[in-house]
Structure formats: C-alpha cells, structure tokens
Design goal:
This protein is 33% helix and 26% strand. By secondary structure, the chain is an alpha/beta fold. It has 2 domains: 7-241, Rossmann fold (3-Layer(aba) Sandwich); 259-494, Rossmann fold. The chain has a 6-stranded mixed beta sheet with strand order 6-7-8-3-9-10, sandwiched between helices. Strands 16-19-20-13-21-22 form a 6-stranded mixed beta sheet, with helices on both faces. A 4-stranded antiparallel beta sheet has the order 2-1-4-5, with helices on one face. The longest helix has 16 residues, at 177-192. 47% of the residues are buried. The mean pLDDT is 89. Bound molecules: adenosine-5'-triphosphate and magnesium ion. Adenosine-5'-triphosphate is lined by residues 16, 19, 21, 39, 41-47, 88, 388, 398-403.
Length: 496
C-alpha cells in the first residue's frame, strides 16, 4: 500500500517529572507540505519534535517515516532517514566558527585517512550562505555573531543536510522582515523540491503566509488540523488559548509626565552615530529598525555596557555616564537583554531564584530575604504570565522556551527601576501571554515609569508604543508619534 503521509506520528505520549508534556498526540505530514504547529508556551510542540528526531524517547506511540517505523532511534538515525531540525535553542558550539559548526559531525574529508578538507568545507559553506543571501564572517567563533546571525547559521546548518523533512522550531523568532523574506524564499524552494517542512511559530501571520496546513496544540494534545485557507487568526487564537482574546494590544493612554531620559548626539564607532531622543514618564518609546541597525547597541550604551565615544545621556535631568550596568541599575535603570540565554537566565536555578534574582533588595529587611513575601510575589508572576511550571521550585532549564522567556520578563516587570529597557520583550511568547505582558507594561506606565522598547515586531510596535523611533544603519531615521505611524511609514524609514 502506498503511504500517503511522509510522516505519521500516532498516540505519542511523553511524561516528565511533574509534567505530562504530550498526551496521545497525532500528527500527519504530507510530502512537500509546509505544516505549521502552533500552541501556547509549554503546549508540547518542541517536545514532539525532540521525540521525532530521537533527541528524547516517547513513553508510547508510533512514528512512521517514509514508509518505515522509527522506534528507539537516535538523532543520527533520524538524520540518516532524512529528518533535519532547526532547534529552538541554539545548538551551535560558541567557540567554533560558522563553517565548523555547519560541518560538525559530517566533516568533508580529503582522503581515506579522514583528514578534514577545510578548504572544501569553507567553499561549500560560503556557497550555501551566499545562496541564502547571508553575509557573515565565516571564520570568527560564532559567539561573536549577533542573535540573528546565529539563527541564520543554524538554518544553513540544517539545510546542508539533504533532509526530506525539515522541522523548524521557531526559526523566525530572531529575524526581522528582510531575513524573514529570505527564510520564506528558502522554504518555498524546499517545497518545490518536494521537501516537507514543519514550521513552529508564535507569529500567526507567518502561518498564513507560508504554511499549507496547521495543527493546533493545546496542553499536550493536538486539538485540530486544518488547511490554512480554511481558518483565520481568531479561530487559531481561540483554539490555542481556549478562549477568544478581547484585545491583542490592550493599549492604555497614560498621561505623559516629565522627561526621564534624554540622549544627545550619542555615538559609538562602528555601531551608531549622532542619536538624539527623549523619553518621558508614562510612555513607551519604541526603538525599531532592521536587525543590525544599531538599536541594541544604543541601549547598551545608555546602560553602561558599552560606553559611547561621544554624546551625552541625561537621566532625570542630570547628565550621567554609567561605567557599568551595575551602576546603571543602582541609578534606576533596567535592561532586559535580547540574548536571554547568555545574559538573562540562570538555567540551573529555579523559577523563584530567577524571578527574584535582581529584586532581592526589595524583598529583604536588614539583609534577610522575606521568604514568604518572595514566594507570594513569584506565585503571582506564575499566575499572571501563565508560566507553565509544576512549581516555583522547578529548574528553569526544564521549562519550554517561551516559559523561560516569561521568567526573565517577570523579573524585570517586578524591578524597582524607573526606566525599563526591554529588548524584544515578547519574543517567543504566545499571544495570550503577550497580552498579559502588555497589561503589566500599562501598570508600569501608570506608576510613572518609562519604557524603551526595542522590537522588530511591527504589530507590537504599532499596537503598544506612544512614539516610534526608527533606526537605519546606525542613525536615527525619524520618530513617529503613535497617531501618524503605519507599517509602511516605519518600513520606509527603516530601509534606505
Ligand atoms: N526535560 C524536561 N524536563 C521536565 N519538563 C520538561 C522537559 N522538557 C519539556 N518539559 C515540559 O514539557 C512541556 C512542553 O514543553 P515544550 O518545550 O514541548 O513546549 P512548547 O510547546 O515547545 O512551548 P514554547 O512555545 O514555549 O516553546 C512544558 O511544560 C515543559 O516544561
Ligand atoms: Mg518550544
């Protein structure tokens, strides 16, 4: 009998201590289709992919791929069978170059003795990356690349493997419009070659743009599979969240107070030039633009992470020059960094410890942490942000990607700081929890704080910001008030 499905997963079950991650999931993938998996943070999407590629073992269920049963398989078996994966968490080795990362485990050899043919590898990698339109330094250790560049290397690595099914677990989370177009081009090309793609994303508009069918996950179960053309955004959200969302962007107009931050003629060689703007209490100033336009660098300069070469920062009316992030923190600033894995979270610590990490001073009397209060605060965060965890004492590395994000965001939402700099605050977070984060931002504004929000997500920028500063190639291209901002106007400023 002809097997109509390239992949069929039936009755897949997986338990972790205290968590039933998958409860009998079915998933069927047709040859040459792009199949979206959507669902709340912790719904089980990544777990299902890990079982598929043999990175973890199912407790029950059956996997048939390309006419063969896959059972007790290793990641190597899956790769040989033709299954590739782009993991949600980067799997690059930080001290190896892009080339070495791409060919790790499948080195091109020169002869029977197995000498690595580094010239050939370099050439192949260069061709692969340029065919993807990616320009990066091939020889530096990948730890020096930006988050977006790492993501592109990750994609190139998966594409170098001649797969017939490619699972992409949130490949777009760190990309902006330009790179996203590139990714979609690649996916269309794969599809034309008959290759199937499993596409996981929290950006629902991508599902409509690139996917043929969609499966919605909810709480460890697949609740529905439909052709994308038969459903709409509201339908997806309702299936995902289990209720309809009254408002995706619950913007509250807050009266604007005094000037909190002023940046004048700020420059840093190689990063940005002559950047000037003010930010007032009670407002969200969005800083947007393409990846690499200098947004994160400006934030880091304000925060004392990389000192500017020229220009002046004023905080609460006084000129300041923070020598370190620690100094900025003491003065009343907080920075939620873009690269959470290396700069925000301590994976080996518990949810409670991570949430209260920089807020312990507020929770302590004479140096003693008020434990009861600490627990109450953490539990409230877990409820308000829907952090899916068996308890506040769970180790953070066991949470799903999006729930790890929520933990860091919770920490900064609790912070005593007056100026909060959020770099991509809702990246990888599901629609329902996003709306809760926006509610909490509203509360911060009402309390007279100010928010500098770096974001690549235009709907979020348009939905939540009071003013929108657009950067282009290290310069401030313009600032749009909320009422005048449109997607087209922002893009026109962002792209030369
Ligand atoms: N190694 C592990 N140990 C304990 N629990 C785990 C482990 N891996 C996953 N889980 C739990 O399984 C559930 C499903 O997680 P999974 O990562 O599959 O979610 P997801 O749908 O990919 O979410 P996200 O959108 O946040 O990436 C979560 O509750 C998670 O905490
Ligand atoms: Mg995931």
């Amino acid at each position: 009998m002809v097997q109509p499905f390239l992949l069929s997963m039936r009755g897949i079950t997986k338990r972790y201590p205290g968590v039933e991650a998958l409860k009998g999931v079915n998933l069927e993938i047709l040859p040459g289709e792009v199949h979206a998996l959507v669902g709340e943070n912790g719904a089980g999407k990544s777990t299902l992919m890990k079982l598929l590629v043999g990175a973890d073992r199912a407790d029950a269920g059956e996997i048939v791929f390309n006419g063969r049963v896959l059972a007790g398989h290793t990641t190597r078996d899956a790769r040989r069978a033709g299954i590739g994966i782009i993991y949600q968490e980067f799997n690059l080795i930080p001290f190896l170059s892009a080339v070495d990362n791409i060919f790790l485990g499948k080195e091109r050899t020169r002869n029977a003795f197995g000498f690595v043919d580094s010239r050939r590898q370099r050439k192949e990698a260069a061709e692969l990356l340029s065919s993807l339109g990616i320009e990066i330094d091939l020889d530096v250790p990948v730890k020096y690349l930006s988050v977006a560049q790492k993501q592109l290397v990750e994609i190139a690595k998966a594409l170098s493997e001649q797969s017939i099914l490619l699972a992409m677990d949130e490949p777009s989370a760190t990309l902006t419009t330009r790179e996203l177009d590139k990714l979609f081009e690649i996916i269309r090309r794969l599809k034309a070659q008959g290759i199937s793609v499993i596409y996981i994303s929290h950006r629902l508009e991508e599902v409509f743009e690139i996917c043929d069918r969609v499966t919605v996950f909810r709480d460890g179960m697949g609740v529905a599979t439909r052709p994308v053309c038969e459903v709409n955004r509201e339908w997806l959200i309702e299936r995902m969240v289990g209720r309809s969302l009254s408002e995706e962007f619950p913007k509250v107009e807050t009266p604007v107070g005094e000037e909190l931050l002023r940046v004048k003629g700020l420059s840093r060689a190689g990063a940005f030039r002559d950047v000037s703007f003010s930010l007032y209490r009670g407002e969200i100033l969005a800083l947007t633009g393409l990846v690499g336009s200098g947004r994160t660098e400006v934030a880091r300069a304000i925060f004392g992470a990389d000192p500017p070469d020229a220009g002046q920062v004023y905080f609460k009316g006084r000129p300041v020059r923070f020598a370190s992030p620690a100094e900025a923190t003491v003065a009343g600033l907080a920075l939620l960094t873009e690269d959470r894995k290396s700069q925000g979270l301590v994976l080996g610590m518990t949810v409670r410890e991570n949430v209260t990490l920089s807020n312990l001073a507020a929770l302590a009397t004479a140096g003693f942490v008020r434990r009861k209060e600490e627990r109450a605060v953490v539990d409230r965060c877990i409820v308000e942000l829907f952090i899916r965890t068996p308890s506040r004492e769970q180790t953070v590395k066991h949470l799903s990607g999006g729930n790890q994000q929520k933990v860091v965001v919770a920490r900064w939402l609790l912070s005593e700081a007056e100026l909060l700099i959020f770099d991509e605050p809702t990246r990888g977070i599901d629609v329902g929890a996003k709306a809760e984060i926006y509610h909490l931002m509203n509360r911060l504004l009402a309390a007279g704080k100010g928010i500098l929000m770096i974001s690549s997500e235009l709907p979020e920028v348009l939905g939540m910001a009071d003013r929108i500063a657009v950067m282009r190639e290290g310069r401030l291209a313009g600032i749009l008030p909320r009422a005048e901002a449109t997607q087209e106007r922002i893009m026109r400023l962002a792209v030369a």
